[in-house]
Amino acid sequence: SANLKWGVPRPRAAKRVIVAQTGTGSHKVAILGAAGGIGQPLSLLVKMSPLVSALHLYDIANVKGITADLSHCNTSAQVAGFTGKDELAGSLAGADVVVIPAGVPRKPGMTRDDLFGINAGIVKELVEAVADHAPGALIHVISNPVNSTVPIAAEVLKQKGAYDPRKLFGVTTLDVVRANAFVAARKGLPLADVDVPVVGGHARSTILPLLSKARPKAAFTDEEVEELTTRIQNAGTEVVEAKAGAGSATLSMAYAAARFLEASLRGLDGDDDVYECAYVQSQVVPELPFFASRVKLGREGIEEVVGSELRGLSEYEARALEALKPQLKASIDKGVAYVQQQQ
Ligand code: NAD
Ligand code: LMR
């Protein structure tokens, strides 16, 4: 299975495998918000994973049809659907990883923080259930504003006595995926080789791509740095505007979430070389209790917050890091206060 990637396997000498029909993996994955714009294509990608034996789909509505539909794919993951609050506990039983794309998306003119009013409560309620019914699971938070929903999740877990910072992640993989795609196109590099760390948070200028640390090493003019950084920071808005009221990124997000899930499952399996950027509790930047940076994934979740990519920044990056601190700190504090005020 090490040779298989999500849906796009590495080519083999004689034949290409398009979809893994059987797998030896035994991981259970629950998706909360599975009937949504992200949830549906993400569920399909997870159904295609050879690392997954059970896939639980939870949403407040429309799960039954999606479950019937997906269950006809002749891949090994067993699909089960769970609809409405009464079935939430059942959806979480035995989960190794819980992925949370539940919540409302942006419309043109909105910031991610404008979603706080609705999504904070959704994330709080779902994470409370995870604490009760899947206390050892890795939690992948996709719901926006990620800069605040992850601190909300942490506070909820603390209140429940179930917080393990190694197991809580804000999914920022889409920022890395975008950075890789845009840099490869701009510099004419092979897509598979490009790796750009993206640190900070997941909103506006808190998204900080470290182009000086891009692999393979590439020379960027000041104009290119400015242009690429701005495009990566605004890529979510680019999609929101193109969809013109019909939501935000769903397909690329599902792809990114599947990549991050695969990395996490490989870590749980004991693979030794699994690194991704994610928004996690960290001391990489002392003033910011949550910060996206490169982490090593292992058998218990985060094995190490690496953070070495923060050393030797370009002047542009160092300035951008200073500038993002107050905005990210305010979003973290807002999430923490939201949970503490309700006690
Ligand atoms: P969507 O509206 O298409 O789907 C959301 C789903 O959540 C719906 O099916 C809805 O029924 C469900 N839901 C609502 N309340 C729920 C609850 N209490 N329990 C369970 N499910 C519930 O939205 P989408 O396009 O899939 O986006 C979902 C979220 O992901 C948004 O907040 C969006 O901003 C965010 N997002 C994050 C990233 C990222 O990079 N982290 C990228 C894209 C989108
Ligand atoms: C994204 O980056 O695409 C998501 O955070 C969705 C959004 O609102 O932009």
TrEMBL record:
InterPro entries in UniProt: Lactate/malate_DH_C (IPR022383), Lactate/malate_DH_N (IPR001236), Lactate_DH/Glyco_Ohase_4_C (IPR015955), Malate_DH_AS (IPR001252), Malate_DH_type1 (IPR010097), NAD(P)-bd_dom_sf (IPR036291)
UniProt EC number: 1.1.1.37
Domain Lactate/malate dehydrogenase C-terminal: 172-337
GO biological process per UniProt: malate metabolic process; tricarboxylic acid cycle
GO cellular component: mitochondrion
KW Cytoplasm (keyword) present: no
Catalytic activity line of the entry: (S)-malate + NAD(+) = oxaloacetate + NADH + H(+)
UniProt KW keywords: NAD, Oxidoreductase, Tricarboxylic acid cycle
GO MF term list: L-malate dehydrogenase (NAD+) activity
Enzyme class (EC, first level): oxidoreductase
Segments forming domain Lactate/malate dehydrogenase N-terminal: 28-170
One Pfam family hit: Ldh_1_C
Family: Belongs to the LDH/MDH superfamily. MDH type 1 family.
Quaternary structure note: Homodimer.
Annotated NCBIfam families: MDH_euk_gproteo (TIGR01772)
Protein name according to UniProt: Malate dehydrogenase
